[in-house]
Amino acid sequence: MRIAIFAVVAALTAIVPTARTASPALSPAVFTVPGQLAGLAASGFRIAVAGATEEGCGVYTARLVAGREASPIRVRAGALPCATEFDAQVYDVWIGRSVVGAAVINSPSPHGDSYSNWQGSLPSGPLREYGAEYGWFDSSTPHAYGCVRKLVTGGGVVAATDDPNRFGVDAGVDKNVACPGDGTTEVELTGAARRRVTVAGSWTVLATDGKRLVLSRLDPVGLPTGELEYVDLAGKPLPTPRVAPAVVKAAYRGWLAPEGLVLLTKRGLVAPGWRLPDVVDATVAYGRVFYVRRRTVHVRRIRDGRDRPLVAVPTASQQPHAAAGSFGVAVAAEIPGPNRDSYRTSVYRIGWSTIDAILPAR
To answer: Which residues 6+ apart lie within 8 Å of 84 measured at CB?
Structure first.
């Protein structure tokens, strides 16, 4: 398995338009860490990035404030598997008002994978297991074990549900589903006044703004039914806009903005009044969606779908990542070296004044 380290982060303090392109050029990174890019997240003025090398793994946080960007802080790994196991690697990170988290995959053989989630207090942890491990092994019956932990963040809150595990489904035989749905769903909350909320029925969480939850109903074997429901953090149903069931079924991530619900589906982004195909990752803040195509970060207004190139990343070994917070938008780019151990990742900051000049929120 390719072992990655995730780099953390640099700030973009000045953006200068170039004569050749409508996209501005990146100014020098605020700071760089060694490793291969795998994930980036933001909340408020903080960002998180994580990764691993052959010598171990790291999770970092940093505070981005124009002119006063702080150096990254390495989070204490605790029992994070990639700190001791060669075949384990961090593949995603998240951050909330008070916590930072990392998702880990461990693949010691081609016959199975195990997944685990880890979370700790800002800014430096330590990280502790968040929910139970889950995965699949083809040598066991049933193949799947544990519940798939689904996490979303928004408004400083982390919301998580434990969903049916369909890794064991072979040729459509649903009897191998682990952790099948039952009569109620518990949503675990971090950063909210309540620690958890219970909702009747089987649901997975799609989005939160820190005050509301967007839930997608699941059938007993973990397939989405196409039904959507908004609830508050006490579990009380709220008015829910109509979204086409086919879109809900295809959605795997969402953002709850004042302008409406933005969903990321298998075919791209869907917002009220427009669709954008061929988008695999995005972030939403202050009335706009930020997404990456090839090596260009674009900004699109939610209200009317107006779209502009925001910044071009001239050198990168893979598609850059973007994350939005109070500081603006952070862009992480992986820079290749002569060998795997010499990769490095830089993160740049684009301030809101620059973004407003390119595409205002209204």
So the answer is: 56
CA distance readout (Å), 173 to 5, 143, 337: 37, 12, 45
pTM: 0.88
> What is the sign of the dihedral through the CA atoms of 160, 202, 232 and 327?
positive
Classify 174 in phi/psi space as left (phi over 0), alpha (psi -120 to 50) or beta: alpha
14: tokens are 């000045």
Q: Break the chain into its structural domains and give their ranges.
A: 16-358
Q: What is the C-alpha separation between 131 and 110, in angstroms, rounded? A: 25
Reported as a single tens digit per residue, the pLDDT across 301-356 is 999 999 999 998 877 667 889 999 999 999 988 887 766 567 888 889 999 999 99
**HSE-CB for 89 with a 13 A CA cutoff:** 19
Q: What percent of the chain has pLDDT over 90?
A: 60
How far, in Å, CA of 52 to CA of 101, rounded? Answer: 15
Rounded distance between C-alpha atoms, residue 101 and residue 120, angstroms: 6
Tens digits of residue pLDDT in 78-104: 888 887 777 888 899 999 999 999 999
d(CA 145, CA 202): 18
DSSP 224-268: EEEEEEEEETT--EE------HHHHHHEEEEEEETTEEEEEETTE
- The token duo for 208 is 């939160």
Question: Beta 112-121 vs 99-109: how paired, if at all?
Answer: antiparallel
CATH topology for the 16-358 domain: Methylamine Dehydrogenase; Chain H (2.130.10)
> Peptide bond before 314: cis, by omega within 30 degrees of 0?
no
Q: Which residues contact 22 (CB under 8 A, 6 or more apart)?
A: 308, 309
Three-class SS state of 81: helix
Predicted confidence (pLDDT) at residue 10 exceeds the cutoff of 50:
no
- Residue 17 pLDDT greater than 50, yes or no: no
Based on DSSP, count helices (H) and strands (E) in the chain, helices before strands.
2, 32
**Interval 110-162: pLDDT, tens:** 888 999 999 999 999 999 999 999 999 887 777 889 999 999 999 999 999 99
